[in-house]
Amino acid sequence: MQPLIRVSGGSPGGCVALETTLLCHGVPREQARPLAAELDEIVRAAGATPAIIALVAGVPTVGLTLSELEALLDAPNVDKVNASNLGAVEHARRHGATTVSTTMELAAAAGIRMFATGGIGGVHRGLATRIDVSADLTALSRFPVGVVCSGTKSLLDVESTREVLETLGVPVVGFRCDRFPAFYLRESEAGIDARFDDEDQLASFLRWELARSNRGVLIVQPVPEHESITPETWDAWLSAAEQETQGVSGRNVTPKVLAALHRHSSGKTLRANLALVKNNARLAARLAARLAR
């Protein structure tokens, strides 16, 4: 697979990959364009080049043009593409929004070493009765990209997700935190492998570790405190959202539950989501700028 690569205004080493599942499936449609523009501005202000990644009419594209992004956001149906269906969507010449796993795969093929997202996928609850584990976890063990996120989504089994990352040999490092965050929640019961408080030291570690292991590195930082949600409030909202989305399965689970959470929280979860994504893009851009020096 040869992705169409555009790196305008910088080298791949100074780029920050941005996924399109967030824009097409993760936020309300009216929020997608303003969010894309703000992420672009945040990354550039920190000295890096944004590279939005997607399949455009089946073509794996790293660094969407504005017209390509508009076409994707205006399309009535855009496939949510992970590692297993990437080839099928490409072969069928359909539009595809990349998840963490496919964003990592295409970013690595383009030589991009930093990627910013909200939260990775992970192990779903109820694993004893039905196996449901995100391809994001194996992608982190396959592609040498630093992924800045706020842990895994709080609706998943956070502790089991952290255990799988350890099993796969994926280093999990915290930026100014000592616990593994859980998206809307600033911390969970799970730990991390190392803590960094200085961006230069973290960039130095990333440069060394990505080359040493040829695997990904997960960099976690909590949602900004003023937008975080208490565990008690979160549990109540999640219970209501899960009741509303009973019967939904497969790739549709997370976007459907997230949409229900936005409604039950009167937009609080959406505001937290936007805040942490922007915060992660800023850190990823600062690290990318240092890696490109």
Backbone shape: globular
How many strand segments? 11
How many angstroms separate the termini?
29 Å
Uncertain regions spanning at least 5 consecutive residues? none
The oligomeric state of the chains shown is single chain
| Fraction in helix | 40-55%
Characteristics of this structure?
11-stranded mixed sheet; alpha/beta; single chain; 293 residues
Provide an overview of this structure.
The chain has about 290 residues and is of the alpha/beta class. The chain is built from eleven helices and eleven strands. The chain has helices at about 20-25, 30-45, 65-75, 85-90, 100-110, 135-140, 160-165, 200-215, 230-245, 255-265, 270-290; strands spanning about 5, 15-20, 50-55, 60, 80, 95-100, 115, 145-150, 170-175, 195, 215-220. Strands 1, 2, 3, 4, 5, 6, 7, 8, 9, 10 and 11 form an eleven-stranded mixed sheet that branches. Strand 7 (about 115), helix 6 and strand 8 form a beta-alpha-beta unit. The longest helix has 24 residues, at about 270-290. It starts with a strand and ends with a helix.
Summarize the structure.
By secondary structure, the protein is an alpha/beta fold.
Topology (SSEs and partners):
Layout: E1 4-5, E2 15-18, H1 21-26, H2 29-45, E3 49-56, E4 59-62, H3 66-74, E5 79-81, H4 86-91, E6 96-98, H5 100-109, E7 114-116, H6 135-142, E8 146-149, H7 158-167, E9 172-175, E10 194-196, H8 199-213, E11 217-220, H9 231-244, H10 253-264, H11 268-291
Parallel strand pairs: 1-4, 2-3, 2-7, 5-6, 7-8, 8-11, 9-10, 9-11
Antiparallel strand pairs: 3-4, 3-6
Helix pairs in contact: 2-11, 5-6, 8-11, 9-10
